[in-house]
Specification:
The structure is a single chain. The protein is about 45% helix and about 15% strand. It has 16 helices and ten strands. The strands form two sheets. A seven-stranded mixed β-sheet has the order 6-5-4-7-8-10-9, sandwiched between helices. The longest helix has 19 residues. The structure holds S-adenosylmethionine (SAM). Keywords: Methyltransferase, S-adenosyl-L-methionine, Transferase. It comes from Novipirellula caenicola. Pfam families: Dimerisation, Methyltransf_2.
């Protein structure tokens, strides 16, 4: 197991091929074409409008990395591809390639050396924390399916404890809005205030309409750091937001959040939270590199670090919970 082995070097240096191959298969709708049953490279090439050689090589590659199975010359979907990458599946999430593997994001990885030397993003104006960061609308349009398990989990937690209550919920940096919207769907008396930049809230508003909760859905556009949150919230959601900022900014924002809550209210924080060793579990731990490449000061904070920030903001009761089927963890903090 610990024998020196150069294979990992070769595999890691050409790991960009995996990104390219999966992105191409999503764009060409290969997984959707296979949704009805196995096909060989000839039939798939016809269905997807490609060359036969290109399709055979792409499908063999996708078989090697675990998205397809191959029997004789026919390819079929693995369970993961069938559930998440066939456009006819209700759990389809191929759209996430539009953000996760966007050219603007991938280009930043051409100079990891530079970002490591500098200690932060090489993107202009603080990268993803810049007010005009171009990809937030794309995030809102494409990433909702990936957040669904966590949104359901949070809504269930809230509904279990507060069934029948008239809850006021603030969704800070709401993006697609699905965290607040899912609570509104589960709790007919919940009122949601969605906060984000105006251009992003247009996507959340559309999603609220589709979910039929628009009557209980209010928009609060602006910069979360300066906009007036209002007060008397039962819950404030901070999902996938604090990781963009340094500790001082997180502290300031958490204090503002605490003042906007009812005395018995709670903040629900969802994020990539690695273990204290910072190298496990893999998805949460490696998210720190994403923050190095795209922000000046962001990080994948540990629970101990979040507890310190929350305590400094005046929260006294902090609990961490794993979210099933998600790499993220929840921290729920209240005053009481
Ligand atoms: C990673 S997304 C998270 C969206 C959603 N909360 C989720 O968990 O999927 C970050 C969101 O923060 C918003 N955002 C970034 N900086 C902000 C700021 N200063 N004030 C308000 N929203 C901001 C972006 O527009 C984007 O929608």
């Amino acid at each position: 197991m610990n024998e020196p082995n150069p294979v990992i070097i070769f595999e890691t240096l050409n790991a960009f091929q995996r990104t390219g191959a999966l992105k191409a298969a999503i764009e060409l709708k290969v997984f959707t074409a296979l949704g009805a049953g196995p096909l060989d490279a000839n039939s798939l090439a016809t269905a997807c409008g490609t060359s036969v050689r290109g399709m055979r090589i792409l499908c063999d590659y996708l078989t090697v990395i675990g998205f397809l199975e191959k029997a004789h010359a026919a390819y079929s979907l693995t369970p993961t591809a069938a559930v998440f990458l066939d456009q006819n599946s209700p759990h389809y999430m191929g759209s996430v390639a539009g953000f996760v593997a966007a050219d603007e994001i991938m280009d930043t990885y051409r100079d990891v050396t530079g970002a490591v030397r500098h200690g932060g993003t090489l993107l202009p104006g603080g990268g993803s924390t810049h007010v005009d960061f171009s990809l937030w609308v794309e995030f809102a349009k494409t990433m909702a399916p990936m957040m669904k398990p966590a949104a359901d989990f949070i809504a269930n937690l809230v509904a279990e404890k507060h069934a029948g209550s008239r809850l006021r919920v603030l969704d800070v940096a709401a993006g697609h809005g699905m965290f607040g919207i899912t609570i509104a769907e589960q709790m007919p008396d919940a009122e949601i205030v969605a906060q984000d930049y105006q251009r992003v809230l247009a996507v959340a508003e559309q999603n609220a309409d589709i979910a039929g909760v628009q009557d209980r859905y209010t928009l609060l556009p602006g910069d979360a750091m300066s906009v007036d949150f209002g007060s008397d919230y039962d819950f404030i959601l901070l999902t996938n937001f604090l990781h963009h900022f340094g500790v001082d900014t997180c502290n300031t924002l958490l204090k503002k959040v605490r003042f906007a809550l009812k005395p018995q209210g709670a903040v629900i924080l969802l994020d990539f939270i690695p273990n204290e060793d910072r190298v496990s579990p893999p998805t949460a731990a490696t998210f720190a590199l994403t923050m190095l490449m795209s922000t000046d000061q962001g990080d994948a904070y540990t629970f101990a670090e979040y507890k310190q920030m929350l305590t400094a903001a005046g929260f006294s009761n902090n609990q961490m919970v794993d979210v099933p089927n998600s790499p993220s963890r929840l921290v729920i903090s209240s005053n009481a």
